[in-house]
Amino acid sequence: MKDLRNKVAVVTGGASGIGRAMVERFAAEGMRVVVSDVDEAGIAETVAGVVGAGGVAIGHRTDVSQRSDVEALAAATLTELGAVHVVCNNAGVVIGGRVEDLTEEEWRWVVEVDLWGPVHGVRTFLPILEAQGEGHLVSTSSTSGLGAPVFNAPYSVAKAGVIALMETVRRELDDRGSPVGASVLCPGPVATPLIARSAAQAGELVDRSQTDEGRRFDEISGTLLQVGVEPAAVAGMVVDAIVANRFWILTHPEWAEVLRHRTELMVTTGDLAGRAPA
Fold this sequence. Notes:
- The structure is a single chain.
- The chain is α/β, with parallel strands linked by helices.
- The N and C termini lie far apart (about 50 Å).
- It has one domain (about 10-270): 3-Layer(aba) Sandwich (Rossmann fold), CATH 3.40.50.720.
- It has a 7-stranded parallel sheet, with helices on both faces.
- The longest helix is centred in the middle third of the chain and has 23 residues, at about 155-175.
- Helix content is about 50%, strand content about 15%.
- Helix 4 (about 105-115) packs parallel to helix 6.
- Strand 2, helix 2 and strand 3 form a beta-alpha-beta unit.
- It contains 10 helices and 7 strands.
């Protein structure tokens, strides 16, 4: 997709962070935008900001873990804007803790939003894009999906799944010569309210903030946020990737070396830290 002007973009998790930055950048490119989120106040604020700047935006509350909600989002987009060209499966949540301590409910919550959300998004919107004859899918993963950190297993598992999902989608699209493109966004540290918003949305789930692992997770996350890039910069990378039909969107160039080192360890020592196998 070389020309984004007057096209329609749908962004889940669009009321804050990277999602909101993508909404604003798409609007600046002349696109009409659908802001999708579970945060209705955030949706209204984001839509008002775009409209106030002279853009076109509508909002739609969507729980991406529910296929019916995603189908309703697609239907509303087509009804109100007549088409859809770019779909960003971006909604995400995170929760910290040891693998064995996290409850099944906590695991399901993260995986259903972070992995099943993109699955629902692809399955719902891809047929529409192909029937239309053009379009692009972007799903947000993370560097945590490329190399899992401690105390973050559900998020890392889901984000690794998103990478596998989008690699498969892109290969299938290329195999059949589809006019639709696909990319996966793998952000490193970005200055967003993801952790605070996730805690607010967790509801009745266990509060782990006072455990040793929870405190360490918060400390690590807080440090990363302080050095994180701005969401607007990430949104610019997404636009560039869509226009160029580039699959990988890596926000931090230094991760290229991390990935090379990880692959080296995989094939030379069979270990994560370079220790020789026992």
